[in-house]
Amino acid sequence: MVSLFTIIIAFLIAYRFYKVFFIPSQKSNAELVLFIPTGSSYEDVVSILKEAEIIKNEETFNLLAKKMNLPRHIHSGRYVIPNNSSIYQIIRKIRSGESDPVMVSLDQVATIEEMCGLAGKMLEIDSSQLMDSLSHPAFLQANDIRKEELLTLFIPDTYEFYWEVSLPTFLKKMKKIYDKFWTNANLKKAEKLNLTPSQVYTLASIVQEEAVVKDEMPRIAGVYLNRLRKGMALQADPTIKFIVRNRRNPKVTLDDYKIESPYNTYLNKGLPPGPIFMTSRAAIESVLNAEKHNYIYFCAKADRSGFHEFTDNYQKHLYYRNLYLKSKQK
After folding, report:
1. Domains along the chain?
2. 186, 286 Cβ separation under 8 angstroms
């Protein structure tokens, strides 16, 4: 017969096994996020779990991990570990390779450098390699684009990526999104405006910066398109702000309007070389569907509502401008 002592010992061993592998291992109730880099070995995973204070006893962890064949099934990725997860559940999740996606909001950046930095922060992609790939002559030539226009290849929105996504896969997905946006209908609209997709995007970046009220974007776009057709300088203040953006004091002065720069739309006619920041889909669509009118001037309303006064008469424009300047002095 099995002695009581043997039964007790067996029970204690079983309880210890249960306690180690099936009772929640996390100290807090908050979920845990684990990042397993591409090419990680089993030993690397063990180190990651130890650093996260998931593994309390490496010997007992190895026992279950090898029993579950984890060493042969290491998958890179971002793994969100729910609160109260046990060692068994964590091993099973990593072994499955079912990593959790990351939501990347590209509409939060202003420049191509910031976009690469965001990708490097949110994903496993190296930001420097991404920037080098985008700036490479072969890439520019393949996309028939200049370096100043690189930002126009990225349609702003929030996208789902897997953290371990490779650089080629990232670029392939962004190209697919770009092609999906630039349908034949949108390309025809751009052609009718005598603009390339990159130029539409560039103008949209100016329109968005000018518009305080979103509903005014199509009308403001119409003003700038009228100026382009008439061969007038755009005279867009956002381009001056772009030129001095990195200055310690970015406040625009009268002297700034005289700065020699291809982005100075007061000194140069036509569009600047590229967008002044990553714009929104709404702004791009406001250019493609710009309001048709005869306005060539607009000025912020004196009531400081964010709306603008529009006119095709320069004297009226000066009148509205003076009203606005007086309102600022009150």
Report:
1. 16-96 (3.30.1490.480), 101-181 (no CATH), 184-293 (no CATH)
2. no
